[in-house]
Design the sequence.
């Protein structure tokens, strides 16, 4: 007899419960634990103090990304950064954990290399001491960010206590228009429903526009689930998922692949499964988006303006945000002039992002007032981009071409936007000071960032001269 | 983690919504490899100007909030990054209790693991305390066991999941608790390999 219809979220959850008690969180098994240099040192220290061992180093994988220099790998100016990276290396050696260090050919942003290496797979439970772990949900994995105490807990036990989440279906009707990207879609979703509508839920993205996205686009969408308050966001696996993973280093080969691919497809949410909540947005109505404020929900279409103070709910917060951003109310987005452009981060630093941005800047030149950098998400992306000659296109147009890392997404290394500097950024957070103390961040798609770099202000890429989108 | 059963202290009102962990502790202070010493960097760019001088216009710098140990703030406190440095900084600075209409998920877990009492209260009540603590001194007493907040002779009830309460009251080490189930973890591993 067929069981009850289930969402993918319930299916993954039920498969991973190690122990359950009434009215308590469940103890969940973790299939993949990703670690990086910033949120792990105190966890290893905790293990040492309590004489505990890493239970499954084989299910743990480490990289260096947040602190690494992107200009010259050999120059780490900051002693404390260096110490943090050395500490990770020692901890990995001591505990037999595989590490892609700064010079390793697999190095990159943790959420870029997991999928790239095929470590990320449908049905897995994945955690990392980083809130954008939700990115891996694009593959139909249940992936979420955890704090350092939880990192220590997973290292010691390979499990985590979790409350069973409520399920939220984010349904996108219709397809995206030409020149409108996954980034615009997720920004529009957060702008429409707010920065906390996902709190307490795991979101599943469904609908035509989602099905039509590439894996890269799906990662961009799932990446920003946390900006809507949801710890995890995912997409049911389909043929696109299977094809992306075929042949990747950590994925099974040949017949074993055919078998596992069938298991993956069977994880997809069943017809008739019920979610705790559903929200709907029309994909064909989404325009290219630009954030104007200091959280990702403070966002409007490029054709729009900053808000009118009489129309807003939390007036004091909006006033503060406009003040911080150096903007007025009712100001057209297209009138905002920028002086920095950052193409990179775990949201938008993949090969397809770089290709589309390169197409826009090809044969043009970065505006005289703008400093623009491209930071590939991984070493591997950098190598492929260079094979295709994308580095040349960017450099000829006046962009700097860097080594892989988090870079200006959070400015922990030397890649910093100066006070009152204004940056068109393909990253995921426009919080105060995120890209440098006093820096002003506008979140956009790679295409929008590329066009802004050339023009020196925001333009609608859909009518941007000479580009077929 | 230290056990905490009740707490009485002065309220510091921070009337902002969506206070993110980048504000609570900016990234340049995440490079330390210890859990201690983060209090000095709490709300760093709100408290200090570019030269490192105290900003007179930021309320936490006011003399009368110097010994505050209860933070009251707007919706969605602790959103953004998963950095546990945020609760480490709050605790190290001296905050033992945070009251807000809602908290971000990861922050909530992180704070709990460090023995900070997080209390969700309806927005109307929070607004009232924000105002009272802004105008004059407001002191609150929290009784975790009975789930009550006392303001003078007024008392308010609050909700907290039973297992969270139990953990805070006992100061339990999570990993030791989980390892009591080690056999079940082994059984799971053996049947899934
Ligand atoms: S790129 Fe940015 S958001 Fe992504 S992991 Fe690095 S710092 Fe975090």
Sequence:
């Amino acid at each position: 007899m067929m069981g009850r219809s289930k969402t993918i979220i319930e299916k993954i959850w039920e498969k991973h419960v190690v122990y359950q008690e009434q009215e308590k969180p469940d103890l969940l098994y973790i299939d993949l634990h990703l670690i990086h240099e910033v949120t792990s040192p105190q966890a290893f220290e905790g293990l040492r103090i309590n004489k505990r061992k890493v239970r499954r180093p084989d299910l743990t994988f480490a990289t260096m990304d947040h602190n690494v220099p992107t200009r010259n790998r050999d120059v780490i100016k900051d002693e404390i950064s260096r110490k943090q990276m050395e500490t990770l290396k020692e901890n990995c050696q001591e505990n037999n954990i595989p590490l892609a260090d700064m010079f390793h050919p697999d190095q990159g942003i943790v959420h870029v290399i997991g999928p790239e290496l095929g470590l990320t797979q449908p049905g897995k439970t994945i955690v990392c001491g980083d809130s954008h772990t939700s990115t891996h949900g694009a593959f139909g994995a249940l992936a979420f960010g955890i704090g350092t105490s939880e990192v220590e807990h997973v290292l010691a036990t390979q499990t985590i206590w979790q409350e069973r989440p409520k399920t939220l279906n984010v349904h996108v009707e219709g397809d995206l228009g030409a020149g409108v990207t996954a980034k615009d879609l997720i920004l529009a979703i957060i702008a429409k429903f707010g920065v906390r509508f996902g709190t307490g839920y795991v979101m599943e993205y469904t609908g035509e526009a989602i099905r039509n996205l590439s894996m890269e686009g799906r990662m961009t969408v799932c990446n920003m689930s946390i900006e809507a308050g949801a710890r995890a966001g995912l997409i049911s696996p389909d043929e696109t998922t299977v094809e992306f993973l075929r042949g990747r280093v950590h994925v099974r080969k040949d017949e074993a692949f055919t078998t596992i691919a069938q298991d993956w497809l069977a994880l997809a949410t069943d017809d008739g499964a019920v979610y705790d909540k559903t929200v709907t947005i029309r994909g064909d109505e989404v325009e290219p988006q630009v954030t104007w404020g200091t959280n990702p929900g403070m966002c409007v279409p490029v054709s729009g303006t900053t808000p009118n103070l009489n129309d807003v709910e939390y007036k004091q917060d909006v006033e503060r945000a406009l003040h911080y951003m150096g903007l007025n109310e009712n100001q057209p987005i297209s009138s905002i002039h920028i002086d920095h452009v950052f193409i990179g981060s775990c949201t938008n630093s993949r090969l397809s992002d770089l290709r589309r941005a390169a197409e826009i800047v090809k044969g043009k030149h970065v505006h005289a007032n703008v400093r623009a950098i491209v930071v590939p998400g991984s070493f591997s992306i950098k190598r492929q981009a260079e094979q295709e000659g994308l580095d040349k296109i960017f450099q000829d147009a006046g962009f700097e071409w860097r080594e892989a890392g988090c870079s200006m997404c959070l400015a922990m290394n030397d890649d910093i936007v100066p006070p009152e500097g204004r940056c068109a950024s393909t990253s995921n957070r426009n919080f105060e000071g995120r890209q440098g103390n006093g820096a002003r961040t506008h979140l956009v798609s790679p295409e929008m960032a590329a066009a802004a770099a050339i023009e020196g202000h925001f333009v609608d890429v859909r009518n941007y001269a000479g580009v077929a989108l | 983690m230290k056990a905490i059963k009740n707490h009485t202290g002065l309220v510091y009102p921070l009337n902002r919504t969506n206070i993110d962990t980048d504000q609570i502790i900016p990234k340049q202070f995440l490079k330390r490899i210890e859990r201690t010493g983060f209090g000095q960097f709490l709300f760093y760019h709100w408290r200090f100007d570019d030269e490192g001088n105290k900003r007179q216009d930021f309320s936490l710098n006011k003399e009368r909030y110097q010994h505050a140990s209860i933070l009251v703030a707007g919706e969605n406190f602790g959103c953004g990054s998963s950095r546990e440095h945020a609760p480490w900084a709050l605790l190290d600075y001296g905050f033992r209790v945070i009251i807000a209409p809602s908290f971000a998920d990861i922050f909530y877990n992180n704070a709990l693991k460090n023995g900070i009492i997080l209390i969700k209260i309806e927005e109307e009540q929070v607004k009232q305390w924000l105002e009272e603590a802004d105008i004059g001194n407001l002191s609150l007493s929290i009784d975790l066991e009975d789930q009550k907040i006392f303001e003078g002779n007024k008392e308010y009830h609050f909700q907290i999941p039973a297992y969270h309460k139990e953990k805070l009251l006992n100061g339990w080490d999570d990993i030791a608790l989980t390892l009591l189930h080690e056999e079940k973890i082994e059984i799971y591993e053996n049947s899934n390999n």
Chain A touches chain B through 61 residues (CB under 8 Å). Residues A 65-66, 109, 111, 130, 132, 345-346, 406, 409-410, 427-428 surround iron/sulfur cluster (CB under 6 Å). The CA atoms of residues 294 and 317 of chain A lie 9 Å apart. Chain A has 15 helices and 19 strands.
